[in-house]
Amino acid sequence: MAMTPHATREALTCFWRRNRETFVPLTSDEWDRYAGISPSVRGQLVKRGLVSASNAKFGRLTVYDITEAGRTMLGDVA
Predict the structure, then answer these.
(1) What pLDDT, in 10s, does the model give residues 38-49?
(2) Quick check: 56 and 64 in contact, CB under 8 A?
(3) How do residues 8-42 score in pLDDT, each as one tens digit?
(4) What is the mean pLDDT of residues 54-59?
(5) Direct distance between the N- and C-terminal alpha carbons of the chain, in angstroms, rounded to an integer
(6) 3-class SS at 52?
(7) Which of 17, 15, 25 is nearest to 73 (CA)?
(8) Of 63, 26, 67, which Cα lies nearest the Cα of 47?
(9) Which of 35, 42, 57, 74 is the most exposed place for a label (fewest CB within 10 A)?
């Protein structure tokens, strides 16, 4: 099932840290905890080029980071 623009935006906002005014990487568990992002949704966002999945694992968790395309889609959060 395709993600709606609203759901995509909600998933991407998890990377923004207002107190630091920057984007931060998230592990799969953190992303799931913040917004209930399932493995299939993470896979869709990676396929669309909006986030990247690190080959280096943090324990058993994959580390995700928002890409330039994801930042552009999200727009100016600040």
Answers:
(1) 888 899 999 999
(2) no
(3) 888 888 888 877 788 889 988 888 888 888 888 89
(4) 70
(5) 30
(6) strand
(7) 15
(8) 67
(9) 57
